[in-house]
Write a structure and sequence with these properties.
Blueprint: E1 8-9, E2 12-13, E3 16-19, E4 32-38, H1 45-57, E5 64-69, E6 83-86, H2 92-101, E7 107-110, E8 116-117, H3 121-132, E9 136-144, E10 163-164, E11 176-177, E12 193-195, H4 196-199, H5 217-227, E13 232-243, H6 257-264, H7 271-276, H8 289-292, H9 298-308
Parallel strand pairs: 4-5, 4-7, 5-6, 9-13, 10-11
Antiparallel strand pairs: 1-2, 3-6, 7-12, 8-13, 9-11, 9-12
Length: 309
């Protein structure tokens, strides 16, 4: 099969470097990796990155961050978190798929550069996943339209202070909810937590003809989980703030994902599998032993969580 986007461009093989990785001898290992794609053309990239990192550090449940840079970009010196730099541009779902492959915990979670979590959001989702045995858990989101509304730390909230409108893209309003946690909208939201043990280290990146998935990768992923009979759970609590900016966000860009899905289907090969098979190799001497091992079972994570409580 010939992949049009993947990783051999002439004689050049796409590579990545890894930095600030945790050691395998650490005794207090987090149970959730939160990954983020740091797109090389993102406006206000460094300001958003700093605020994103501060948001993760504020979580009441300690998380392991995983930042994915592309096009040869590197992290600023102040980012004392695990990060990986790919030497070619990546699509959003290639970057997410890389984040899954490069995670080191039983649970993984995506969080966009411009979205923010309530302080106990990861703890709530991880606890729900452990208690229910769910493969994927989501929550409710307040829709915001200005970065200034995202700046201050905030706590989990009952969605009763919000209202729902089905228009998409959202029409500017105040106290508007997405409908992902309440089930009013079909989406599971901009950020979900799932079990790498139940699902495996995989996330869709390509169609079977090699074309990139451009905009509907998360919807395809959720559909695959549903068709596999894996349990998903919606938590009707506001866990975060979603910034709506149709002019710059990938979910609103032109694409042919639905047509390509119908014509070719989704490839089992993904950026995740290419990294884990070393077809996309690490180019520095980083210790990848934690990354390359299979994801731990949630039961082991629960025992560690209870021991540290």
């Amino acid at each position: 099969m010939s992949f049009r986007r993947i990783f051999v461009l002439g004689s050049h093989v796409v590579e990545y470097t890894s930095h600030n990785l945790p050691g395998s001898d650490q005794t207090d290992q987090p149970i959730v990796t939160v990954f983020c794609a740091v797109w090389h053309q993102q406006k206000n990239k460094l300001d958003l990155l700093r605020a994103h990192w501060e948001n993760l550090k504020s979580q009441t449940l300690t998380v392991r961050p995983c930042y994915i840079f592309d096009n040869g970009d590197t992290a600023p010196g102040w980012l004392d978190a695990p990060w990986h730099s790919f030497d070619e541009p990546l699509s959003i779902y290639e970057a997410w798929s890389a984040g899954v492959a490069l995670s080191t915990t039983p649970y993984v979670m995506n969080l966009n550069m411009d979205d923010r979590l309530a302080r106990d959001a990861v703890g709530l989702l991880a606890g729900t996943a452990l208690e229910t045995g769910s493969a994927l858990v989501c929550g409710e989101w307040e829709i915001c339209f200005d970065e200034a509304d995202m700046a201050d730390p905030f706590d989990l909230a009952d969605p009763s202070f919000t209202h729902f409108k089905p228009a998409w893209p959202p029409v500017r309003d105040t106290q508007l909810r997405l409908g992902s946690g309440t089930g009013e909208r079909g989406t599971f939201g901009p950020s979900t937590l799932w079990s790498a043990h139940a699902i495996g280290k995989w996330y869709p990146s390509y169609f079977n003809n090699g074309d990139l998935i451009r905009s509907m990768g998360d919807a395809f992923f959720w559909s695959i989980l549903k068709n596999s009979g894996l349990q998903t759970t919606r938590v009707p609590t506001v866990i975060g703030k979603y910034l709506s900016d149709p002019d710059s966000q990938g979910e609103f860009r032109p694409h042919q994902d639905a047509e390509l899905l119908k014509a070719f289907g989704i490839s089992k090969r993904s950026m995740s599998s290419l990294i884990l098979s070393n077809e996309v190799p690490c180019a520095n001497d980083a210790d990848l032993s934690l990354i390359m091992r299979p994801a731990q079972a949630p039961a082991s994570a629960l025992a560690r969580m209870q021991a540290s409580a």
